[in-house]
Amino acid sequence: MSRPRKYRRVEYVPDITYFKPAGAPLRDVDEVRLSVEEAEAIRLKDLEGLEQEEGAEKMNVSRPTFQRVLASARRKIADVLLNGKAIRIEGGNFEMTWRRFRCHRGHEWELDKPVGVPPELCPVCRQPDVQPVPSPVNSQSIRGRGRGRGRHLKDLPQ
User: Are strands 31-34 and 86-89 parallel, antiparallel or unpaired?
Assistant: First the structure.
């Protein structure tokens, strides 16, 4: 029996998750699926310019795993660009990181660094029962597994 896969930590899920070549009818275009964690690896390495060790740490994976995820994402993006395919960003095996929190008394605050679990106590009233507050930009999924099974923004409690 294989061991269960660890969730990869993701800080940002893009609002726009589908791209296709301009001028090509959708019915004539093949589609490639990029997982949310593959998009996160591209964002960390190529957009933010982090070293692989730093990216792996942010995603809570080993450096070799980060390298495999990044290589897979780059291979898919090259296929899309060079062969005129569409790309859909969805699914995967990930958990969101959080920056903003609220206690049951309504105090709200933001941390400097994103974390995977809420703090134990509110810094104002020192009471437990702290919940993450989804931000509109990166709250598309709290945890996602498989093909398109993440919870979407419209499904989250307001």
Answer: parallel
For residue 66, give the amino acid letter.
F
Token pair recorded at residue 85: 């395919």
Both tokens assigned to 113:
């660094």
Contact 152, 140 (CB under 8 A): yes
> Coil, helix or strand for 46?
helix
pLDDT tens-digit series, residues 30-60 = 999 999 999 999 999 999 999 999 999 999 9
8 A C-beta contact, residue 43 and residue 34: no
Taking CA 38 as the corner, what is the angle to CA 37 and CA 39, rounded to the nearest 5 degrees? 90
**How far apart (Å, rounded) are the C-alpha atoms in residues 116 and 5?**
16
**Neighbouring residues of 104: CB distance < 8 A, sequence distance ≥ 6:** 127, 129, 131
What does the DSSP 8-state code read for residue 16?
Answer: -
